[in-house]
Predict the 3D structure of the following.
Amino acid sequence: MKKYLLLSFLIISFFTQGQTKSYKTLDEVRNNTKNISNFFIKKNYADLFNSTKPYWGLKANEIDSLIVKTQAYQEFFDQRLGYGINAVKVKEQNLENTLFKETYILRYEKSALRITLVYYKNDSGWVINYFNWDDKFLEELN
C-alpha cells in the first residue's frame, strides 16, 4: 500500500511541477490550441512552447528541450512540407468535463501535419496534459 501511495504522489508531482496557471473556460482552451497551431504553422516554436509553460505540468527545462527538438526538424519541414498555409480544426472531444482533446491539421504547401492537445481539468481549471505533432493526418479520415 505504501508503494502505491508513493508512486501516485510521484506521478501527480510530475504532472503538476511546472503548472502555475490554468485556463478557466473551454473557450480559453480552444483559443490556446488555435494559437499553438498558428505558432506551429509559422514555425515560431519558441513562442509556442514558452507561451504554454505556465499551463503545463512539465518543468521549464523539459519544455526548453521540446523547443530544441522541434527546431531540429526545421530542415525537414522546409523540404518536405514547404511554406505554411493555415491550420484547420478537425476534431474536438470532451470527456465528462475532465479531459478535453482538440486536433488540428496544419496545411503546408506540399503536405500536412497533425497537432493534438489534451487538457485536463484540475481544481484550478484546465491545464495542458498532452501535446503531440506528427504526420499521421490520414488517421483523421477513419
